[in-house]
Amino acid sequence: MIIILKNNAKEKSIVKLEELLQAKHIKTNHIQGINQNIIGLIGDTSCIDMDNLYAQDCVESVKRVQEPYKNSNRKFHPDNTVISIGNTKIGDGSLQIIAGPCSVESEEQIITTAIACKQAGATMLRGGAFKPRTSPYSFQGLKDEGIKLLLKAKAETGLPIVTEIMSQSDIDLFTDVDVIQVGARNMQNFELLKSLGRCNKPILLKRGLANTLEELLMSAEYIMSEGNMNVILCERGIRTFETMTRNTFDVSAIPLLKEKSHLPICADPSHATGKTSLIESMSLAAIAAGTDALEIEVHNDPRSALSDGGQQLTPAMFSDIMEKIRGLCNYFGRKIG
Amino acid sequence: MIIILKNNAKEKSIVKLEELLQAKHIKTNHIQGINQNIIGLIGDTSCIDMDNLYAQDCVESVKRVQEPYKNSNRKFHPDNTVISIGNTKIGDGSLQIIAGPCSVESEEQIITTAIACKQAGATMLRGGAFKPRTSPYSFQGLKDEGIKLLLKAKAETGLPIVTEIMSQSDIDLFTDVDVIQVGARNMQNFELLKSLGRCNKPILLKRGLANTLEELLMSAEYIMSEGNMNVILCERGIRTFETMTRNTFDVSAIPLLKEKSHLPICADPSHATGKTSLIESMSLAAIAAGTDALEIEVHNDPRSALSDGGQQLTPAMFSDIMEKIRGLCNYFGRKIG
Amino acid sequence: MIIILKNNAKEKSIVKLEELLQAKHIKTNHIQGINQNIIGLIGDTSCIDMDNLYAQDCVESVKRVQEPYKNSNRKFHPDNTVISIGNTKIGDGSLQIIAGPCSVESEEQIITTAIACKQAGATMLRGGAFKPRTSPYSFQGLKDEGIKLLLKAKAETGLPIVTEIMSQSDIDLFTDVDVIQVGARNMQNFELLKSLGRCNKPILLKRGLANTLEELLMSAEYIMSEGNMNVILCERGIRTFETMTRNTFDVSAIPLLKEKSHLPICADPSHATGKTSLIESMSLAAIAAGTDALEIEVHNDPRSALSDGGQQLTPAMFSDIMEKIRGLCNYFGRKIG
Amino acid sequence: MIIILKNNAKEKSIVKLEELLQAKHIKTNHIQGINQNIIGLIGDTSCIDMDNLYAQDCVESVKRVQEPYKNSNRKFHPDNTVISIGNTKIGDGSLQIIAGPCSVESEEQIITTAIACKQAGATMLRGGAFKPRTSPYSFQGLKDEGIKLLLKAKAETGLPIVTEIMSQSDIDLFTDVDVIQVGARNMQNFELLKSLGRCNKPILLKRGLANTLEELLMSAEYIMSEGNMNVILCERGIRTFETMTRNTFDVSAIPLLKEKSHLPICADPSHATGKTSLIESMSLAAIAAGTDALEIEVHNDPRSALSDGGQQLTPAMFSDIMEKIRGLCNYFGRKIG
To answer: Testing the interface with B: which of D207, D216, D281 to mutate, by most B Cβ within 10 A?
Structure first.
């Protein structure tokens, strides 16, 4: 960490700052510049709150040198984390395809869709039981009933299931779920993250609409610092000024997260774009960029879907896209599942 | 709601769409354009999910005409909502000043700060007991102990207290709190909002970092649709590309929210800018823009604060700013408290 | 175009609006809703300025139905535009690789780099002669001397050259240039666009940092409406809140622009990310997404470059990446050049 | 400037970096951290291009300590710059009101509007002769004819005139103009800025839609480094995800620019919000925040305006707002004009 001093900083104030740092076992190193004096901090600065340093009279600004995340940092764990889910593994070089409807709506809907997804080549089943909707007047999900239906679909197809949690008070309902998803709107619901850190299930953590990659890694840190190291990071689009797509799919997040972290990465082109016509090209782009998994919305009858109808593929469309995905995976020497 | 049809829309598909709409008691009106055909929807379209319409083969795009929020909409409730908090009222033309530290840190800290805030003219006391921090390694708040200390400070000064909730499982700890705050990161924690809708306390709802004003009003709708009509909307800065301020303070949100909604508005220049040097000017700007309340961070000793040191005012600075605020309120014929 | 009327709109004001529209040969169609009345406009609304309609007393809001771009719109020109540049073609299914340094710095530098680029498989040479730099104290380019050096490099290698124009008063210097580039900062320099519309050279039009795809198409329209139909659209990253990359590479812009327009598309992973470590993965992602061309910065000695050193590849790195690009192109059945 | 070295940086590469810096007369100071080594740079680093340092093998990242702007920096020029325009001054504590139509449309329109603006209390007249429009099919301005009409309106009212330039080739047409405006879309049209730096007229420089305050100051630097020190900085809203306003008015930019720079500041609530209903509150907010000038769009008949009809005030509305502005100025002890 580097502290840039104000030009008119008083000696007394600098001494006070030094004492405060020494109390935290941080050594300092002064650099006398021509227009600006700076102090370099030596030691473990992860215990220092940057914002607080700004309260010292003599401080003009503070710059971080070390990354604030530890458990998820590739610097300290060079090897890829590989997470086992049922018989499959994520992060081992394979590609996992998580497919299924936005919401679980009925037994017939989820089982029909699950069978179709499996036939087309999906390796896991997604489906929302608890639905975070902007409007309280929209369909809110079947809740515990939805989880039961997912488990029936799992029994039917053998596909591990991925479903979203919205509140830590529901955690007991997720006992038989294979992967618990944290949605974009809850990426910084820190109490929920801590609870999930104390369970031993893989967590699919989605990037918030306006969250930086560093913040995503810090949210992973919340889960990992409680003991659960099985975190999958998911890029699902960020909010920008562009209005033609629902969000802007930050494909570069995939290789960047791989550079900075050892955790496996998932990409969600359905939410990132909100447009079925873009799912194929964005799925292929994400694979070319190195993603470990894709999460794609598929519905047996999107026209009668209770949510997100416009971004869900029909089984036929999904099957066509899977063909393209399979071809590209072969080319890259990667297997699906 | 308006549906724009694809140029090559098939008659069969349009008929299907019509049937679907009729089943929801929506009448339709066709407009034959030169390049484009559209359908106008007549009836209560708040039950229709726009996204789902995109799943119909014949639909190119959908535009909303009616606002999706009802309870918070000024169209249906022209008069300002006035909320009573202790002996004061918010929304009645007065200005409320909510001041206090970012975090409650100790009995001495909160009581000293509360007394100083009251002396300077604050009308309510804020202080974080549960703290949403980006890093799990930062101070997380004193939790229930923090709320007890706030209540002591209230007993000492008579100031009503405002403090943030992070999880619906903590709701019983907030029984004696005067105003429950929902932080920006939880603005779309819908389960929390629903719980708060079932309690009868005023809720201070902060706008999320990347949330539109319409989404803020929809989150208010979550609380109101459960029966709690006492919602205060708070502008606290949005995330943009600018890096000189922590966030960008959207001052125009104040008059716009007043135009669209009857709910009282609060502005938080401390979080919006993250810079003590901007609090004075941004407080005055918010008053000039018509805010009903200001939330300002004050700490008895910011240099030793455990969080957000750089944006908290000293009591002396706050007292100076209050002088300016008082003057401007007098000018506008508004009273404080 | 759809006009939503205010609830309290006066008959007189609506009549006035109707007259104004009739004067522009627009027919109207009224839809009486339950909470809202709307007017549908029938006719060529491209001559109507949406903003101006807001000035009418009775208008609450205006929604566009038709796209405002014509010449670049795929609806009216279903076939891909194919542009000839020297012996190569862009937009015909092939992949063009435009490589070269950020700035032309010296004869030795540009010729060495051009030869290396050609050997690695580039099909065109880029190089900045006029450089738009944030700071007036940074290197501003060799200007006309730079163009001369580019022409020498073309003579040496046979590669067509692409270089940026910053002012319409320089247009005569570009007589022998093969493709004139308009930089992101000049995307809405409308006077420059009009001048380029009156020359008969291919124009590589870069998307502005904060411009929507619709605005990019409207800027193409400026060029095309003056007669020059040879426009290549270039995605080069947009400005968001993320700070780990210089910009956010909007890969979905590639298939979306292809959907909306018949013009060829180029992608620039160098500027989009600002990081050499991401060029390979983002180049492959752009190909998977269907780009017609890639623009990549290569410098014979990036460590001594006068601009953008951190995002320019060495010839060896470029050669490695070209191997991967060639492989992926083969897989997709596309040829380079 | 601070350079953070890679963990695996080779001695040889560090030596090379040192040599490169010494060649630019920069001294270095090494700080050995526990996890990271850094180099502090001592000397005038404004000649160093940060991006280029990234090309050195041993460099992980670079952080700037000194601000890159000099002429506009308050550190080196503590006193406010005061600019004379006709008989008035901007930056001396007074408030200037620049009012007038978006576009000059006819002699009658501009003269009627100018007289009305003057009567209401405006101190300068604005009006667009060259209009930057997103669409080539929209009204593009009366050009040189428009400037002539503005000069007639000046002769009639005595108000100094402010009008926008779009191309340096038009500069001779601006000889009698009092203040030349650079629009948001041209903020980084560096060739235009340099030309304006060589004329001796006050320049009103508008912040680009996606430009940081530092970039705005760097664009001022382009003008000032050529010799013209009379630059007025203008905040006119930035582009964000919010759609209820045309742009987001960054009111905090006013005090921040005053902190960082000695140049006078103008605020443009008309373009910042795009809504007449917000002009009054945002004008008052800007004054409370310390602006030196306001630019407000007024049209004698907005309903028949050729551009931006929806954000232009009628003379009556403007007159009402001026009453409020006058009151607030009195309160702050500032005079208008």
So the answer is: D281
